[in-house]
Amino acid sequence: MWSAVIPAHNEEGRIGRLLENLSPLPIDRIIVVANGCTDDTIAEAKASVDSRLFLQVFPEELGIDVPRAVGAKIALDCQATGVLFVDGDMTGRFNQQILKLMNKIEEGWDMALVNSYPYIPYRHPLSRTTSLFRAKLNRKLGLFHKLGIASPSHGPHAVSKRFLDKIPLKEIAIPPVSLALAGQANLKIGVGAGITHQELQSRIRDNKHGELIAETIIGDCLEAMSILEGRPRSRWYQGKEFLGYHPARKWELLNSFLAQ
Per residue in 103-136, pLDDT tens? Predict the structure, then answer.
């Protein structure tokens, strides 16, 4: 049984297209986690009239990646054997690649990632720096030869029930940490498909958002590497603490939901 988890914060004009794009897939439950929406995201999701839709609404914004953990709990409670994560602003048509991810899980993988940066001759300095930290983490895991710079922080990915049973659901809210813990648990991880960043057709945002996202992912990777090295979690590197959107993650709301 497959569940799709779709975090959505103010995705009016996009969530409907995403749901329509995903509708042909062999998914049993489509979980939209609407958090802190102040537009018509919720009404647009309901308008899809797909009987598989499960809408979880939080009046307050949960923070980046936290809705994934919420959706994972709902999926696990619904006896999902595989969970697909797709962000609510991704309106590209990439169902064939998603099927590849799902097939890998059904073949016995525990985390199937996408390569979103194949063959790019030039990367923006921020993207390049973020990629370096993603590579550092994957090398520390001994998985760089399999993953390159692939990360659950970026792009659709799929996980098995074994992954959900082994990894504390709270840690899904920091994607690189969930990857590190999966590696420590000797779960089977690989790149199951390639979807370029352009093919995702995510919402275009301003430079400030890009900077905060980069700092978030770098800090998340630093936390993950701290765990692998047996140290207290830290987001510090060479005298700078990489926070980004991390302080906006609402752990109290997540903990309360997971305790239900």
Answer: 999 999 999 999 987 554 445 567 788 999 999 9
Residues 60 and 72: their CA atoms lie apart, in Å, by: 19
* Residue type, position 206, single letter: D
- Pairing type for strands 189-194 and 111-115 reads parallel
CATH number of 2-255: 3.90.550.10
Confidence of residue 260 (pLDDT cuts 50, 70, 90): very high
Round to whole Å and give the CA distance between 256 and 136.
33
Q: Where are the alpha helices (DSSP H) in the chain?
A: 15-22, 41-46, 66-77, 95-106, 125-140, 144-147, 161-166, 175-184, 197-200, 207-228, 251-258
Residues 6+ apart with CB under 8 A from 91: 14, 17, 18, 21, 201, 202
Q: Which two tokens stand for residue 97?
A: 């690649």
Residues 155-190 have pLDDT tens digits of 999 999 999 999 999 999 999 999 999 999 999 999
Share of the chain above pLDDT 70, in %: 97
Output DSSP code: residue 36.
S
Q: Evaluate whether 58 touches 253 at the Cβ level (below 8 Å).
A: yes
- Provide the β-strand partners of residue 53: 30
Q: Calculate the dihedral angle through the C-alpha atoms of 133, 120, 202, 173, rounding to the nearest 10 degrees.
A: -20
Give domain limits for the chain: 2-255
